[in-house]
Structures are given as C-alpha cells and as structure tokens.
Amino acid sequence: MKPYILFFSLLLTATAAFSQTGVLRGTIRDGKTNEAIIGATVQIMGTATPIGGSTDVNGQFELSKVPAGVHSVQISYVSYKTKTVPNVRIESGNSTVLETDLVEDNQQLQEVVVRAGRATNTEIAVVTEIKQIKAMAVGVSAQQIQKSQDRDAAAAIRRVPGVSIVDNRFVLIRGMGARYNSVLINDVITPSSEVDTRSFSFDLVPSNIIDRMIVYKTGLAELPGDFAGGAIKIYTKRRPEQNFFDAGLTIGYRGNTTGQSVQTHSRGGLNWLGLWSADQQIPSSFPARAGDFNNLNSLQRAAYARLLPNNWGMEQAMVAPDIRLALNFGRRFDVGDVRISNLTSINYAMTNQATTTDLSVYDSELAANVPSQRYVDNGYARGTRLGILHNWSARISPLFNLEWKTLFNQLSTTETVARTGQQIANDLDVRSYSERFENRSILTSQLAGEHTINDLTKVNWIGSFGFTGRWEPDWKRVRYIRALGTTNPFVIATPQDPTPNEVGRFNSILHEYSYSGIANIEHTFGNPTDREPNRIKAGVYYEQKNRDFAARFYGYNSVGDNSINVRSQELGQAFSFQNVNGSNGLTLRDGTRDLDSYRGLNTYYAAYVSGDVSFGARTNLTVGFRGEYNDQSVRANIVNVDTRLVSNRIFSPLPSLNLTYKLTDRANLRLAYSSTINRPEFRELAPFNYYDFNQLADIRGNTTLTTATIQNVDAKWEFYPTSGELISVTGFYKHFKNPIESLLLLQPNSLAYTFMNAQSAQNYGVEIEVRKGFPNAASAFLKNLSVVGNLSLIKSKVTVGDVVTAPDLGGEIQQYRGLTANERPLAGQSPYLFNAGLYYAAPKSGWQGNILYNVFGQRVFAVGNAQNPTIYEMPRHVVDLNLSRTFANRIELRLGIQDLLNQYVRFAQDFNRDGVIGKDVTSQTANADQDVRKFRRGSYYTVSAIYTFGRRVIVP
C-alpha cells in the first residue's frame, strides 16, 4: 500500500515545463444571434502533432502547448460553414486571444444533424443539459464516472451533490431516505429491487453501460410525482461512437474477508450463476394449507419432513479473492438507408463479505446498557451477479428513430451466520445458525420511438415491460440453548407452535410484473434555433403492476423420550432421516398463516401539460400541471375467501412552477415550487410478518397507511465559470402531510418494526456545490487537476400527532396515544452530507487518479416508543483512492482502494432520549446511550485490467 500512496502523492506534486510554446484561447459565437456555440471544433492546421479542442458551454476554448509561430486555425461545427482564420500569431510563453463567429449552412443542416448525433456522456454535455433543464438538477457523466473508476451506479452517484449511499447500494438525496426517491431508467419508472422497502439497488447497474445520470431535485410536470428527495434518471448508452470490443478483469481483496477461513453452506446447482438445485424447493406433494398438514399425525408429518434435504451441516472454506469480468462490444452498420447500432455489455461478478457483528437488545431499565440479549454474529456472504445490457437502435429515416433497450440482472446471495451469546432475560446461553440463499431476477425491456413531425414538433413514445423475481428457497434457522453459565450440552429449542426465531425452514417466492406505456409531444413556438424558444409539452403515462408473494414456514417439534438426545446432536446430524422419525425424535409442523401470502395490484394513470413563457431575453417561466390517479390494493385468501385488505384510490393534482432568471451568460437564479407525493409500498401495507435474523427483529406491514403529500419550495444561484465548472448555492423547504416512517412496536426485550403515518413534518436546508478546474494555470499539473465538493445542511422536524395507528404484536390495528415522542427529526433524514473529490487526469501520459471522501450525519433508523428508544444510524467517514494508466490506447490498468478508513457501520439507541448519540455507550448510567448493532465491512482493494481488441472510428 505505502508505495502506491507515495507514488500517487508524487504524481499530484509534479509539474511540467513549457518550451517554445504558447496558448490560444477565445470564443466562438453564432454570426446571426451572437449566442455562444457549444461544442465547436477548433484545430491548429499544419502542425506535426494534431492540436485541437472544442468549445465549452460558454463558447470558449483554450489550446495549450501550441508551437510558437504563425498558424492557420480551422473552426467547424455541425450545420455551420467551416471557417479558416489565417495568420494567427502564437508567442512563446504568452496567450493569444481569438474571437470569431460562424455562419449557418442551411443546406447541410438536416442530414448532418441526423448522422452526427449529439454527445451526451461528457462532462460538458451534462453541465450543458443541467444548465438548460428547467428544474433544479445535478448530474454525473460517463466521462466523470470513468475518471472515478466507479464500478456501478451506486458508487458513481455519490459524486452528485446532496447524495449519499446506504449499504453501498441505496441512495439518499438531501439526506432523505430511499423511499422518497424515484428512479427511472431511460425515462421509465424502475421496479423496486427490494421486497420489504421501496428501494432501487443502484449496484445493479454497471458503470460501463451508463451514459449519464441526472438527479432532479424539484418537480416538473413530465416527472413522476412520487418523490420528495429527488427523481433520478439513469440513461444507458444508446449507440456506439465507434465499433469496438473490449474485455476487463478485476481482482478484489477485502480486509478481514479474503484469505480467511469462514463457515458456509452449499446450495448445489449452478450456484455460481445465482441458481440453486431443485431439491431446495418444497415438494409439490406437501399439503397446500397449514391446517391440512397439521391435522396429520406426527409419523405422517415426519414422512413429509424426510422429503426435504438434510443439508444443515456447515463447512469450512477459505475465501478466495473477488472476481469481476466484463465484455463490451458495439457495432454500427447500414442496411440500405437504415443506420443500425448495437451495444451489448455482459458483466459477471462473484464477491465475498465476512463480518463480525456485535448485536444487543436492551431492557427498559433506568440505566443504559443493561442487555436482555447480547450476541456476536460471525457472518459470511457470497454474492454473484450476471448482468446483460442489450440495446439496438435504428435510424429508419431522418425523421424517425427506433430503439429497443433491455437490461437484465441475475443476482444471488449465499449467506451463513453463526451466532453465539446470551438471552439474559431468560437465563440462557444461545447458539443460533442461519443458512440463507436469496435469488433475484430483474428485467426491464423497452421499445421506444422518436418522431420529428417538422422543425417545430416532436413526438416520442415508449412501451415497457418489467419483471422482478425473488426467491428464498429453504432458509434454515436453528437455535441451541442451555442454562446460562453452565457446561450443560446445548439443546435445540423446539416449541410446540412453530415460531420464525426458532428451528425451522422458510420459503418465499415473489413475482412482480409491470407494463408501461408512455407518450409525449413537444411543440416549439417561433424560431427553433433561438437559445431559449418557447415550448409546450404534454404527455400521458400508464403503468400496471401485479405482485404475487407467497411464504411458507415449517418448524420442527420434538416427540418421545429420546428427543433430548436427538436435539443435543450437532447441526449436521440432528436432522438426519433416522432422527426425523415422528415417534422418538423430531417431526414437522406447518407454521404458515393465511396472511403470509398476498397479491398486490397497482394501476397508475398520469397526464401532464407544461409550457415555457419567456419574459424578455433573461427570464423564463415554466408552468406545469400533472394529474395522477392511482388505484392500489392488497388482497389475500383468508379461510379460502379472497379478501381485499387494502383499497387506496387517490387522485393527486400536482402543479409545478420553475422560474429561471439569467443574471449573466454564466449565472442563473432559479426559483421553484412543486407539489409531490409519497405512496406506501405493497410490503408496507401487507400484514405479513417477516423475521429478520440479522437484525433479530420482526417486520410487519400496516394496512392503514395512506399517501403522503409534500409541498416543495427551492431557490438556487448557479454560476458556470468555464467548461465543466459549476458553483451553486441552493436553499429549500419541504412540508409533509402524513409522512410514512418505520416504528418500533411495543415488545419488551426484543425488536419489532412496523410502519406508520405521522401527522406532519417539515425540513429545510442549504446545499453548496463546487466543480472547479484550473485550465488557465501555468502549471501543466494544475491544468489536469479538478476539484468537486458539495455540502448539504438540513434541519427537520416531525409532528407525530395525538394518535398513532399501527398493528400490535398479534397484527390487530390499534389506536395508540403517547406511544412515541410527539416531535423529533424525520426518520431517515441526515442533518448533513459532505462529498469531496480531487481528480487528476493527464490524457497525453494516460495517467488518472482521484481521492474521494463522503460522510453523512446521524439519522433516525427506526422511530422509538415509550419502551424502546429511537435507533439511529451513525456517521461513517469514507475515503476512496483510485489510480489508472492507459498504455498504447489498448490496455488500461487500475488500482482502487475503497473505504480506506474502514469505520464501523453502527446503529445506536438513544437511551437518554436527547436526540444525540454520545460517546458513552458502555456505562450503565441514565445519561449514556447504547449500541444495538456494530460491524466493519473491511477496506477493499481492487486491481483491474481492461484490454481493447479493436476500435474503428465511424465516419458519418
């Protein structure tokens, strides 16, 4: 490590010398309108080595290291006549300024525009897009992602102002939880990648397929209304600029994991592809209903139990390094007059994570740190991912483009946890084991068309299909107990009625299908070449979502006098066929309830209209209205009767206003208002009780949840000094009605969560963003350096109200008074976020490097009650280092270090209820706080090699 860090430090302090060269800089404008031309090509003619560049968002350019002397300068841009400026004198060590204009070439406009396309994945392109978006937005380009060497969208989006990541995959915007964010891929709402929460797992999207990501922080009529933090649009690459084929290999080493001996278990089958063997499923011969199964005698139930595999035993394994493989290729070709493009990316990863977790549950005593349960979990998880992006596009004619985009991910996690500790409240020593396998399949496929009716009118449409599947086959859990502090043998606890936290086997399957149809029309008034033409937009959005979820749970019972000997056997022998005999050992009971399965249906209709109104050359107002009708229902078969448990039919009027005032050509002042909503998810509504072994907690839905409404007001000052640079300051205020939060249920000496609507909430804050380069610096080193930083400060307050409506431990809906504090911070809201990055890129030498830092403030993880204090997720300081070098334009080598500080992931309980987690989390005083869960992930080191087999520039 030290040699790499030393080398990186020396690299960042090196300087380059100039020898008989000068600088050419200037501005290129439209000869008719005098507006800046973005992306014009400026080239020095006749030099031995090509020297050129392009203009930025302000029409400015700068070329360094131009040989001293007299040169001709050629300037070109699509749809403009190429211009050559002769006799431009460059003096050694000085700067020469060239300001000129280009004249439109209308005869070439239409065909050239279609063939050349528009770059969208560069930093300049993204800054330009953000500058032109009517809402307040921030973003990250493929070019910046490449500089950061981020593996996936989760890592890349951390570079966006006001954004942070939880569990390396879920996004928080302005410190708000994942439930308040809407995610779209190629303008279509993505299916949730999780079952229990409304979250999109950003690690599913490999960085090499991303064109750009834009985060909208204020509402627009064309955006879905279900967000409060932000709406995130991920655009995958559309078509290749070159024919290419490249392959990459990454080897990863994680501290405290790689090379360590761990306990794991086998699932058989094609486990390396995220699949499992057929015997992991419940045989079809099992009775479908719990009552029918339990009415059988113990011998008959044991006979069924013996149909299940006896694969409880664990095995020791040495953890191998992580491995990631990537294949990417793109092609463009013509079929007659039709231009066809294909982009395909195949990614495979196998990763490993071992953790040692301290886990505690506390008594409701007068002193802190009096545990009722205290454990140490030794966990190991192996994850696999197979991801495929397959995009086709066809330019049918200059006025019609057709695209088909498909993104598929197959994921699996094989997780093993061995728990040791004490259940102090019941005077027991405990050993528990969890052997869990999860498989997920996520598919989105879209067919989209773009039609140019004329120079003033454009139409686009999208038809989309999505599928989310999740399987948890044969999740085995067992708990051994003995009297506290004794040397007695441990015995498997086998209660008469199966419970999820004792011995048993859990199976679940979820299928969710979504169908979407989208259509938009845009009409421009006046001259479409104006810098800020007036436009009107309108569109419709339809989505149908159907979810089927079914869970089964079986628990083991003891039978006969010999059962104590059977239950004291080791994990690998206790459930052998001879012990599961139904007469003098073990048998099986079905603990499944009718509410353990449900069906969710959601029908969503939306229509919008918005228009731009210009008040002179500097002021533009965008007014929009969106109407959303949503019909959400949850049904279950209760005693063979199809019962509708939830019926939420809501129409939401969502107006929006966005005002932009151009202070100068480089600075804007923006004001915005929007009304948005936040709907409950199926899992939050369904009264299904899920046991989370890792958190030692039950999670239960609440059928009474209703939709939250949010009023948003924002004000922003933004300044664009040069290309890719930005300085902005934003103030915002939000008012919530009926915000949805996670709540701790009244359950002594254990943890159980549900969801509730608070009465109201508000938050307000300020965001500061800086993107700064040094293009005019005398030092070549500084010219290659850029700095990105952003800081968000947020204050939030929830008013819970007099009554909280939530289920009790038995699932019955109750009206609680005084259950929790009436005022506190909003659940999931961080009081501050800070991101910073230092980037170095030297294109000529091929070296790139960066240092990245991220931290978020203490935030409510679960709202406490009168017995259990609120649980907070604590801040972590995260530092990442990356270094890369390109050789001969074919080979790229990368070194990455993630989470260099390796601080604890920590959840702490606010015992003294003062809203602040203090440093004293061990003493048993009334003013101390207490840690609930704490573990380290380990620093992560990667070495990557990418080889390009061939690139061929395509001439339009």
From TrEMBL:
The keyword Signal applies. Keywords: Cell outer membrane, Membrane, Receptor, Signal, TonB box. Residues 1-19 form the signal peptide. InterPro entries: Beta-barrel_TonB (IPR000531), Beta-barrel_TonB_sf (IPR036942), CarboxyPept-like_regulatory (IPR008969), Plug_dom (IPR012910), Plug_dom_sf (IPR037066). Residues 510-899 form the TonB-dependent receptor-like beta-barrel domain. Residues 138-227 form the TonB-dependent receptor plug domain. One of its GO terms (cellular component) is cell outer membrane. It comes from the Bacteria. It is found in: Cell outer membrane. Pfam families: CarbopepD_reg_2, Plug, TonB_dep_Rec_b-barrel. This is TonB-dependent receptor. It comes from Fibrella rubiginis.
